Amino acid sequence: MTELFKNQAFTISHADDGKFVGQGLRTFFEYRDLGIKDGTQGKFGAHVIRAVPGMESPGAWHSHELDFQMVYVTKGWVVFEYEGQGEHVLREGSCVLQPPGIKHREVRHSDDMELIEIISPAEFDTSDEEAPA
Q1: Residue 87, exposed/middle/buried by CB under 10 A (0-12, 13-18, 19+)?
Q2: Which residues pair with 78 in a beta bridge?
Q3: How far apart are CA 82 and CA 95, in angstroms?
Q4: What string of pLDDT tens digits covers the 133 residues of the chain?
Q5: Which of 122, 128, 127 is nearest to 39 (CA)?
Q6: How far apart are CA 116 and CA 63, in angstroms?
Q7: How does strand 45-51 pair with strand 114-120?
Q8: What is the DSSP string of the chain?
Q9: Reading across the β-sheet that carries 62-65, which strands appear in turn?
Q10: What is the Cα–Cα distance from 61 to 103, expressed in whole angstroms?
């Protein structure tokens, strides 16, 4: 039994223990869970996302039903396009707060792209969207 502190459990995720899996939201990315979902009883989630070399994004517009989504690029680069904000190249050290429900799409990325995403809640719905006018 894990002891809870203010409804959170102590958790550590080490890179050498972490496994990337291709079972995430996007097939052209692999995901490594950082244990935050379990430690916060699903209130938050965090994972490392990396590109699958040679695979490209179809550039589909979508939105997420969540309260918080932050992306921090640790390696390579990625181009996102946001409703009302245009295209932005995020590179190593770039951080973006994606407001709840904003329509966006991943346009392209480097084969070595890697980023950290923090979300709340850990599980959320994603909707396909038409391109913004």
Answers
A1: exposed
A2: 90, 109
A3: 14
A4: 466 788 888 888 888 777 776 655 566 789 999 999 999 999 999 999 999 888 888 888 999 999 999 999 999 999 999 999 999 999 999 999 999 999 999 999 999 999 999 999 999 999 999 998 8
A5: 122
A6: 18
A7: antiparallel
A8: -PPEETTEE-----TTT---BS-SS-TTEEEEE-SHHHHTTTS-EEEEEEE-TT-------EEEE-SEEEEEEEESEEEEEETTTEEEEEETT-EEE--TT--EEEEEE-TT-EEEEEEESSS-EEEE-PPP-
A9: 86-91, 77-82, 104-109, 62-65, 125-128
A10: 6
Q: What is the identity of the amino acid at 79? A: V
Q: Which tokens hold the place of 78?
A: 């990625």
Tokens linked to 45:
């989630």
Tokens for 108, please give them.
Answer: 């392209």
